Amino acid sequence: MHTRKSLLSLAVLVALSGTVLADSSSVTTSQNGTDNNLNVDQGSANGSAISITQGGDNNTAGTSGTPIKQTATNSGISITQLQSSNTSAADQAGNSNNASIYQNGLSQRAETHQAGDHNSANINQNGNQYEVASISQGLYGGSYNTASISQVGNLGGPWGDIGQTGNHNTASVTQNYNIGGGYGGVYQHGDFNNGSIYQQGNINGGATLNQSGNNNTGYVQQISVTDSVATATQTGDYNNASLYQTGTNLTATVNQNGNGNVVYSNQSGSYNEDNLLQAGGNNNSATVNQTGAGISLALNTVSLTQTGNNLTSNISQSGGSGNHATINQH
To answer: Which residues are bridge partners to 126 per DSSP?
Structure first.
């Protein structure tokens, strides 16, 4: 049948022609079939829950323009979509809320936006093709928010990015066993932020970490990648960035501005190339290890520039032809 909805789903859709205004409200609906469209607007309902399950193709549970909306405290949104070409979008305003999206199928898209403090968001995509996941928290400022994206076993390169504004936030992007590489981005603005990107078994690879603020920690790791690009940019004080790559063409670029910054980069593979810059800060330290054959015009190049006081650099290159290292300290 082209579209089949349960009686409960139909009742919910009728009830949701307006906005739900109550405390401890609950919306639960299930749809099976294709080309289904569902939207919920739950306002001023603290301690409430929205649960949506869709099985089929080309289904929509909120869009970028008209997302599933929840304005509350201590509330949750749960969306599950199975099969292919489905879309999810959820917005939450308030504190101590949770949003969770799970998609299993091909060509899935999911996004979550949260405003407030002590919120958590999770997007889990499995067995997809060219899926996209995006989480933003605290657009106008927020504290103690957590966000995570997991993309596993996908055909084609997955895209996952997290943006956070505020203090004491944490973020994690994990992409495992994907074919065609993947892009993971973590963008944080505020103090005491923690960002992490982990990629394994990718062919093309690619990871980006961008942090602004104080006491930030960044972590980027790629394992068994082929073309391999890793980039970390930190602006602020007491930043720490660590990049690991294991794969073929490998390029890592790190840019830090601030005081007390520490960078560690480890590359193993063939054409290794590293570019590290620390500027406008004191007590900086950078360590680079490259091990590889270095072919295709004989790469293996490290360029390190440090500007500031009490700077330390350690560079080691091994097992390559055409090794080249340039260090500039002021």
So the answer is: 104, 152
